[in-house]
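In response to reviewer comment 3 from the previous cycle, which asked for concrete evidence that the modeling workflow produces usable outputs, we include below a single protein chain processed end to end. The sequence was submitted unchanged, and the resulting structure tokens are shown without manual editing.
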Amino acid sequence: MAQAATAAEIQTLADLLQSLGDIAPDRVRFRPAPGTATKQDLLALEGMSDRIYELIDGVLVEKPMGYYESVVAATIVHILKSFIAAGKLGLVSGSDGGMEFWQGLIRMPDVAYAARERFPQVIDPTDRIPAVVPDLAVEVLSKSNTPAEMRRKRTDYFQAGVRLVWEVDLKSRTVAVYEEPENPTILSSADTLTGGEVLPGLAVPVKDIFADLDP
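The workflow returned the following structure tokens.
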């Protein structure tokens, strides 16, 4: 696995892009300067830009999301909410639901489920980016997502305490299930996706996730 460059090793734009997973340069916001951005800078972008950004090592990085990726993400939100509703097991969020994993790192999974135990007893609705780590993070792959970027993202997720990651590929109509940063189980449309130990009892035919894309 390619290792992200440390702050001391980042001397050029190429170093920075490599540390972020070999992403395109037009996804990196240079105001504020990379390495100096904060949670407050991310919050200040709300209403100023129609783009979604994550905060990675003090760098504001655009999170790409296309129409069909959004359609599939909405389907997954519906599936998860329908499953957890009766037991009020936790909260399900969408692609603009930022979560602060640690200082300098705010991720926005396309879909996330966090058990109630992850939250304080009284939730503050004014906290726009809570310090919460989800149990399940779902990423619907976009064209601009590189393999290195996704490896970096999975590493961040599991280091923060995420227990399960689903990577959904619209092109192949598969779901890669990760219980660690590498070595996924790849499920095709003939398979059933389960919630494992995170959501015991959840079982969804993979083809149902992509059903809205059919004619």
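The first strand starts at residue 28 and ends at 29. We consider this sufficient to address the reviewer's concern, and the full set will be provided in the supplementary archive.
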